[in-house]
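Listing S7. Sequence submitted for prediction.
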Amino acid sequence: MEISILCKVVDNYGDIGVAYRLSRQLQKIGTANINLIVDDLQAFNKICNSVSPEKSFQVVEGFSVYNWKDYDFCYSEFSKNDGEKLAVILECFQCGRPDWMEKILFEDKLERTVQVIMIDYLTAEPYAETFHCLKSLTRSAKVQKVNFMPGFTEKTGGLIIDNDWNELPERRRDGRILVFTYERNWQPLVEALEEVQAVQKTKAENNITTEKTILVAQGRGQQSFLDAVNEVSKTNCDKADNDEVRLDVKVLPYMNQHEWDKLLRECSVLFIRGEESLSRACLSGIPFVWHAYPQSEEYQLVKVKALLDRMKQHFKSEDFEVIERLWLDINSPEAEVAEEEMKEACLRFLERADALCYGFRDFSLSLIKNGDLAQNLMTFIYKISII
């Protein structure tokens, strides 16, 4: 069997991150040849260094990678043997199909039936269960299309559970704090981190090692966080009683996916963004805060509240309130949240991170029970192929 995965890189590396992870996992299952078709190989190279941005075709970690933009080469390769490589197409995140593929599917007269499976964005909203495995129409009876929804319940496809993600990492109380967010005024978070660090410094003087390094990842939100660090540092320097505690901030380089996974699992607290890193945080059992992609009319709050609703059952009510308050503050428009209010929410979360672990770990275990998205997908593919 041939499975071809389509991926357009839209926002940083989240889309290709999911497609790359899915390709690896499907290849590992070993019952199909995997073809990953990507429109931005330069971005792919950032998270998988063995990818060559110049090549029209290459083999990476056992699966085939094609340059979406090379019309002639891809048309020639994918039209062979009655479009054999297009028997099953996974269209990731409503990315559409390249022109050469449209020609093969709808202008060339294929004899075979093609299954197009739409892998949608990850969401905890109720519609994920409604849309999962729902069929839709195409321009040809030979091209059959169906939705397959990643998600957080047994009535969806679940999450990709690859490599070490089927086991929770050991809790690292003295691990580092990862900051990977979108743009925002992060001064309240920086001030909260400094206050927590001041307490940790006191403990360190009593031979209790608790100081944490703040790891700042590459991406759109990096500069706004560093600007906040500089602003708080400048304010502290202007004070007469200048005995402030300076944060240990480390700016991370671009990392490949394997390195990123390892680093994330070794942290003690995560401030995370995007679908790919969100899914890893959910599976890690590590206390995390999700900064959702800002959308028009604050629709990101709908997505955030939906995920909070899924998580709520895993926490005591007083503990969940700490998480909910910070998640809603960080994802609300800045004008609607006072800086002191957000700082207080950050402080409460950071101070209670260790005590909140039980709920995050229980939530992760519930997701692992839902099974691996790639394996669930292969089961579904065989089922529709038989039908």
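Caption to Listing S7: primary sequence and predicted structure tokens for the chain studied. The CA atoms of residues 187 and 228 lie 5 Å apart. The first helix runs from residue 14 to 29.
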